[in-house]
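Pinned message: reference record for Caspase family protein
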Amino acid sequence: MSGLELFRVRVVMLLVLAAVALVVTCEVAEAQSDKKVALVIGNSRYANEAALVNPQNDAEDMAEVLSRIGFKVIVKFDLDYNSLRNALMEFTQFADQAEIAAVFYAGHGIEMSGTNYLIPIDARLDNESQIAFQALPLDLVLNAVNGASRLRIVFLDACRNNPFLKKLQSRPGASRSALGRGLAPIEPNEGTVVAFAAKGGTTASDGSERNSPFTKALLKHIVQPGLDVDFMLRHVRDDVMKDTGGRQEPFKYGSLPAENLTMAETEEAAAQRQKTGQGGAEAAGQNDVRSEIDKARVAWEAVSTSNNRTDMETIVRMFPGTVYADLAQARIAKITADEGAHEPGEATELALNTPGEFNGAMQRTPEQSEQKAWFMATYANIDFFGGDLYDSGLKVQSADQCAALCGSNLACRMFTYNAKAQRCFLKGSYEVAQRADGVTGGYFFKAGRSEPPPVISIQWELMVSADIRAIDLGPTNDRSYAACFQNCRSDNRCTALSFASRAKRNKCWLKGGYAGNSVDARGVVSARRAEEQVSPFRVVPALPKD
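Predicted structure (tokens):
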């Protein structure tokens, strides 16, 4: 990986205060994932029926939340029959080694003769006899989680008003008694809980927000540390009942043993488990795994509302093997599908930005309003002069460390990194921007994704170990380069300056006229007026600074 690529990877994280490469063994990663595993499925784009709006959103958000509370998450979208079956079969291997195994499914389901089925996106279901061959029985889902040792839980947001059911019931000779409305009540094995978005025989609402009422409530309560699963589902029920005016009542089937089973651990419980269940090195390794996942989460949150392909490709490239890379891949597939849905000749406005992670074409219509987010633009050989938060700068080893320090400091809006001196200068503002070899400038800004990033106006060129040949306007009494620079900037005659730090007197020399020539001179720092517009070579998402 090149230094430039490493810089991009680390900057988008913005929470790291030191850029230390984390080396995590496969065994440690597996130990972390053995505890809590989840399979999240969102089926939205049905081939033979109208697409559902919420399942992709529901699955994206559920996968992110489960990952945040320590689950190893496998997330899948728009699965056909074979893909759905294979996903459950593969997940069985993870669940067999886990303490807690969870499956979340959002999409269509159907009940026939007391048996519940999940409907893949390629199902046609022209008659009742096809259900058993084109849909997957819920029993396969229960089998997939059955190997977990402590808690087995299935969340089904699949009780929607089903177009497949309407079509089947409209067929001549269809048995209305065999086809139920919603899903049928079930009796899972002890220690297994199945939560329906709506109780047996009733349907669930998609709602009018990003998430369905059931998933919205589940996302709210599943993250509460130490909340017992039974109480969590009661809270979900109450919220959905309130949200739907009593029209939809989630229902829990199954029973749990008399122990406190939670989806999200308290900090105390996690610390105790690490203390009693594993050695210090293993615990540290697992913390490193979580640290990497947390960095991926921060990057995902910065672009989670984006439909920009380049944003998603950046997540995939920087965080392979994480749930966030899977979410980004799914978003790319959705973007591709949406692009293919445009009719030939359809008018589409393209917003093009400068080369880098921020650029690309984004489809927009005039009436769309876009949310503003924070980004960091990076400029090659640009020094932001003035506005330092720390006079002498900070000793760091790389530009990515400097960017991370600025990103984690709310007062820092730009920075300059001097690679030769390995000094990081954090800045709350700046007076002028100057071109300087061997430095990197970073600038944090808030904008809409289609807006172009800032173009920096260069007013000066800084030269180290160089003396400018021009008309001498005379020496000054300035004893520092900053004072000398300020003196020249305030004098319209001054087109350049040279500052000899080692001289006992006459350190600062102001120059006039043509200042295009210079000679090598050790210990001399010079600057001359310049006029140039510089665009960033890279723009990446950043944490908010407001």
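Pinned by admin. Summary line: The chain has a mean pLDDT of 81.
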